[in-house]
Amino acid sequence: xxxxxxxxxxxxxxxxxxxxxxxxxxxxxxxxxxxxxxxxxxxxxxxxxxxxxxxxxxxxxxxxxxxxxxxxxxxxxxxxxxxxxxxxx
Length: 89
Hints:
The chain is an alpha+beta fold and 89 residues long. A three-stranded antiparallel beta sheet has the order 3-5-4. It has a two-stranded antiparallel sheet with strand order 1-2. The protein has a domain at 31-89: Multidrug-efflux Transporter Regulator, Chain: A, Domain 2, CATH 1.10.1660. 7% of the residues are buried. The protein has four helices and five strands, in the order αβββααββα.
């Protein structure tokens, strides 16, 4: 019983004081390397149908992992660079 009393915060006028927890360490955000088709379309600012048209035309590289179609970040960056070089953007 005495051990539990020493662990509790002291009360002030019958109310318990709130104890502050140590701040949690801030983790670095993980940079994604592969995007699914929906995420890639959102990242590029186009609809999924347009994304699939670019994939079929060979303008944008993708790979299959199992049943998933993934678009590498590097492929999206290269696509954007080509579009900017051509003056399409």
